[in-house]
Amino acid sequence: MNVRAKQRLSCLVSSFLQICMTTVWSRVISTVERKRAMHKNVTVIGLKGIKYGNGRNCKNLRRNKEDGTLNGKDLKTAIMVEIIDLSQEIFAGMPVFPSLPEVKITVYATHEEWDGINDVDTISPAVNLLEMGEHTGTHVDSISHMAREFRGQTIETMPLSMFYTEGICLDLSDKKPLELIETVDLQRALFEANLEIKAGDTVLLYTDHYRRAYGTNDWANNPGISVEAGRWLGEQKVAAFGVETMSPGVRKVSNKEVHRICGELGFTHYENLINLHRLIGRGRFRFIGLPLKIRGGTGSPVRAVAIFEK
Ligand SMILES: [Zn+2]
Fold this sequence. Notes:
By secondary structure, the chain is of the alpha/beta class. The chain has three domains: about 40-80, no CATH class; about 100-130, no CATH class; about 140-310, Putative cyclase (Glucose Oxidase, domain 1, 3-Layer(bba) Sandwich). It is built from seven helices and 16 strands. The protein has helices spanning about 5-40, 75-80, 110-115, 185-195, 210-215, 225-235, 255-265; strands at about 45, 50, 60, 80-85, 105-110, 125-130, 140, 165-170, 180, 200-205, 225, 240-245, 270, 285-290, 300, 305-310. The strands form four sheets. It has a nine-stranded mixed beta sheet with strand order 4-16-14-8-10-12-13-7-15. Zinc ion binds near residues 141 and 271. Zinc ion (ZN) binds near residues 141, 248, 259 and 269.
């Protein structure tokens, strides 16, 4: 074998070994990634597609070589989520808690003004002026709202992790107007739903009072939790609980003391939630109800949502 033939053979052997090593290495990588996806509920993005979920729920979206879509969908919509809106609409004249400010929404500036157009039949608002209390519609209370002794813990000082949590929703729709929800009622609802409260959860309480009474004279006569039930929720170390009524307790019975216990045990609550019936029987979800960063705020309207990943 001459020198040139030897060189060619050595080149061929080296290329062959390189291909073998690349194949083995990519297999090792893909096995590691698959195992990580199986065990840690992570998303693994590779050339062939995306793996996400954990264990038996691990899903595999295959990438189309021609257009790069995943199972015929683009990346943004391939990982589907269902977002349930838990928030009331805000409008002038909407129901508010007795003695709190009415909502007023007026046009502050129009497109016509900005464009120097006079004599218009219809104005088109460019900026509205909102007048309303912090505790309007779907909102969260700051710890400072709960009682005098907590006045330093205003809304902008509370950690955002309190408003971005796992959530569960309990069925208490057998409760009548002004009826107290006791600890045993919460425990029974947990048992029936086969759920447990974990530290850091937001626990939503479905009473169906919104659908039954919103806009009627009965709206202010809501069922609510007892003082003992409030303390029990706090002892479970929840981040918050949420109700679809104007107050977490029954007014003039337990409401004020329920607020004070929230301050004492360092958890909060949401009021005026809607659509809680859509969460019943569906287990855990992601709950988000971020407040506005109001300096010195005693609470804030939120756009509360429950998110289920599909
Ligand atoms: Zn409150």
